[in-house]
Write a structure and sequence with these properties.
Order of helices and strands: EHHEEHEHEEEEHHHHH
Number of helices: 9
Shape: elongated
Radius of gyration: 19 Å
Strand content: 15-25%
Distance between the termini: 64 Å
Helix content: 40-55%
């Protein structure tokens, strides 16, 4: 039998089984408070450093191809003060997504050809990286899907992005040309830049 200390900070039931952990030991660890179940089949050791975003970390195991998007990505990039009630994750159109009871999750299906455009990562826990759209892609997605997210969230994210050192409106326009919504993004950038 493996010792708990031999497992990574975060792991799945499948990985534990592959490493020789019997399910009864796994659930004894959980029931004894030695591990915490982040989501069905995803665990984190209790002695692990604190995770800054345990919900996104759990989803990275449940939906390995998924990318944190929308308001969740805006929160990661400090482009919003909105409290995110459900982790928003993008998957390629046509991909299967498991039924996820916890954490609360909203799934978006994005075109496979542009799916990884603007792909970045952030540390959801020390040394544990989660896929997320970069700040510019996030702003463009919020503007082009403003009917779902709301105009105030989209335009606040745009203004915060443009106030960030090194922000480039040309990147926003390039993404908008590729993803769609160029007219809306261009008009929003013009208004924000005129202030």
């Amino acid at each position: 039998m493996r010792e708990l200390g031999e497992l990574p900070w975060s792991f799945t039931t499948k990985l534990a089984r592959e490493l020789g952990v019997h399910p009864r030991d796994l659930y004894a660890w959980r029931d004894g408070g030695h591990i915490v179940e982040l989501s069905r089949g995803v665990f984190r050791r209790s002695d692990a450093p604190p995770a800054s975003n345990p919900d996104a970390l759990a989803l990275s195991y449940r939906v390995p191809k998924g990318i944190v998007c929308g308001v969740s990505a805006a929160a990661v990039h400090d482009l919003t003060d909105e409290l995110v009630r459900a982790v928003q994750v993008a998957v390629p159109a046509g991909d299967h997504v498991p039924k996820i009871d916890y954490p609360p999750t909203t799934v978006f299906r994005f075109d496979g050809e542009t799916f990884e455009l603007g792909l970045s990562e952030f540390a959801a826990a020390p040394g544990e990286w989660v896929r997320v759209y970069d700040a510019a892609r996030t702003v463009v997605d919020l503007i082009r899907l403003r009917h779902r997210f709301g105009e105030p969230i989209a335009y606040t994210a745009l203004n915060r992005y443009l106030a960030t050192p090194g922000a480039r409106s040309a990147v926003l326009l390039d993404y908008a040309r590729t993803l769609g919504g160029f007219a809306a993004v261009s008009a929003a950038v013009d208004v924000a830049s005129a202030r």
